[in-house]
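Feature request disguised as a bug report, sorry. It would help if multi-protein outputs had a clear separator. Right now it looks like this:
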Amino acid sequence: MWRTRKNQKGKEKVGNDSMGKRFRWIMVLCCLALLSACGEQQELADMKSLIIDDKRAMIWEERVYIPFCVVSKSDCGALIGYVDGDTDDRISEFKGFLPEEWVVGWMPMDGGAILMKEENVVDIPDGLVQEY
């Protein structure tokens, strides 16, 4: 609610009463609380590593992923989880492919990323050549 009041020099001043300010702040806080509650976060998986034929592989749920080839970090999609609880050892989707078949392992400070395929996958996308 706006009202006029006189300042010390006798001039009228238009201002905002404290109830209106409080109401607006309460509304802003309520909106922020609603927005933060609506943001649904995906729970990230904690995957386990293991060594197969002197190479680091990864287990996620019942699937075993083995190294396939080096790819660019730009090929990484959404973050899926971490390996052995290390938040710097990240696993992401491989853009355009199902995570049940292909994932990308990468570290934020490292220059590249390793594409990993589920061990039973036989359909290899065009342009990919197995390096490991």
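(second protein starts here, but nothing in the output says so)
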Amino acid sequence: MVNIYDRIAALCACLIRANEADELFVHYSCIAEQAKAELRQAIAEQLPMLFEANQTNEVLSYPAVRRLGEQDLNESFYQVLEACLTFYRDQQAYFALMVLLQVLDESLQELLRQQIADGQADSFSTVLNSNREATGIGLLPRTSCMWERKHRLIRHYDRLDGFLDHLLLLEHTILGELIDKHIFLKSDLFPDLARTNALKIAASPLRRDPHYTLECYEKERVSYVRVRYPMAERAADNETVWEKIQAAAREHADIIVFPELLGNPDLTAYLVQRIQALSPEERQRLPSLMFLPSVWDKQMNTVTVLDKHGHVLCRQSKQNPFRLVRGTQGYLEDIRISHVVNIFHHEGIGRIGILICRDFLTTPYMERLMRCFKLTLILVPSCSTGSYDFRQALDLCAHDDCNVVWLNTCAALEKGKEDNFESIGYVRKRIGRREDDSQRLYKMPVCEGAFRGECSHDCLFFETIQGV
């Protein structure tokens, strides 16, 4: 199986090099339909196994693409495919190679669905091709998204991934030093998704009191800040998180999100114990995914993700430190950068990424992840003194059909900066073109008590993202 993906990765690398020299993708985006049909017919004559013998396109009368199975990928197939690739490469017939790539993308869709199913059985997945380092290309099956336009990347006509429907293309020149880890969520994790065509999200800012301390210090002539969690508050805080999860379950939420920094080192073990003490029927009613409040521990700021069975799916660490200002002095968050990026894949939802606070506001970093993984949902747990910058950044994701959930906490509210707290969170979502434009942005209001330093721990917001 790896042979077909190795060949496709090499083909993609060849086309990207050609594009750098001659704007291939821009020109191909406007190829004449008749010319494309003729190229397809020529490929069908060389690679008849990629096409149905007695089925043609109704408009242009070129052969319909055949869905390949594992039994089709034999030595004879690879010999003919390699000969065809070599012929077109030698001729520098890049339009023909583009057509062939699109045919292969379409013909492999059933095998790619099987790759998704295989990925669900593993804790995480790697790319399909073995020549990633040599080609600078990684390939994965591309999960569908119910709110993503069919031609989501049409405005990116200078990119190869805009011409692919079933393969997810990862380019090393964009990925850089990041280490990608892919989690294909089990198909039964969201049992109602196919029926409802909707994803219900719960978000809790948790509390007004921070229950953590900030320690400022100097190291190598730079001022830094780190976070500590007193033992006295941990048990009560853990119980509050558990209560929010149960409240979200009663409202049939699919996902629950918590803010940055309001966890503690004991939280994950506590929640796993509580979940595993439930009956299987009770677990089924919990939110399918729980993005726990991040914890600052061992010089890392980390969000732990649990599923409703109490399994730790991943731990996503913050990659970009925040800068705390006290008077005229700035203090840098003293975190170690792991460069590991966890991406969740699920049919109907697409690809979910977690960008912790400053990660989302670091625009080049955020756009890299958008470009690399074609994210369809970004979760942004935050602990920030204001909402303005986050609201501005939300729209950067809108043109690529990527919905965003940003959640702050009242624990970050500082005296004198109350006007910065316009909202405690937002859900920025894609809606249908005929829907009311006001539905694009759901605002989570700050309760009045927060401005007086009070908290009843009642805040829990719900918003549903519908298929479009």
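Even a blank line would do. Unrelated, but nice: The mean pLDDT is 93.
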